[in-house]
Task: structure prediction
Amino acid sequence: MRIFFGNGGVNLTSSFHVIGEIFDRVALEAGSVWAENIQTTSVPPGGATIVEFALEVPGDYVMVDHALGRLLKGASGIIHVEGPENPEVFEVVVPGVNLSSGH
Result:
């Protein structure tokens, strides 16, 4: 999935994050420099970013500004993903050790 995210605010930086995901790639400030494996990316006022990530498990993923007080003001969105269950995502395999993720 690719999201183009802009911060139309005039003086507050946004800390863009999708709960339950790590961004595979982020175009910092929507430019030509890409970073990998980013959890939260800063977007300056009047700025933008591009994020890319794969969703391996169906469900609802919440997009937030990590200044979570803004959540109460409506700064959130939902990505609804449908598809087959994928329990392998939650499996931890260590030879000779029985680990359970609890999912």
Observations:
- Residues 2-90 form a domain with the Immunoglobulin-like fold (CATH 2.60.40.420).
- Residues 3 and 97 are 39 Å apart (CA to CA).
